[in-house]
Amino acid sequence: RATTISELARAYEAQTLREEWMAQSIAAHAREAGGRILTIMGRNHVVERHGVPNRIQRRLGDWPAPFTVLLQGAEWDPKDGSLPKCGKFPDESHADWLWYMEHLKGCPTN
């Protein structure tokens, strides 16, 4: 974790560089393949379309916007048919779809 302004700036630069590289690679492959591709990446690269989805869209121009699925940990028992229990449900600005997974102890839920 960044503890100073300069460490935070360096972390932001590194994250931006990583996301630009990821978006360039994905967009180039999409053009070569002539269609849709599936990529799996961490939630901080996807949430609210900041990061990789917006960068892909910028590179592909008039192509349809990338479709995003956000993994969300939740307390629940999938065997009893109940809905996931979340302190705060992400809204539609976070992703096109949410995929709920059983939250494991010690893992953050948001």
Which properties best describe this structure?
2 helices, alpha+beta, 11% strand, 110 residues
What can you see in these coordinates?
- This protein has 110 residues and is an alpha+beta fold.
- Helix content is 35%, strand content 11%.
- A two-stranded parallel sheet has the order 1-2.
- Helix 1 packs across helix 2 (52-60).
- The radius of gyration is 17 Å and the shape is flat.
Layout of helices and strands, plus pairs?
Elements (H helix, E strand, L loop, with lengths): L4 H29 L18 H9 L8 E6 L22 E6 L8
Parallel strand pairs: 1-2
Helix pairs in contact: 1-2
Can I get a quick summary?
This protein is of the alpha+beta class. Helices cover 35% and strands 11% of the residues. Helix 1 packs across helix 2.
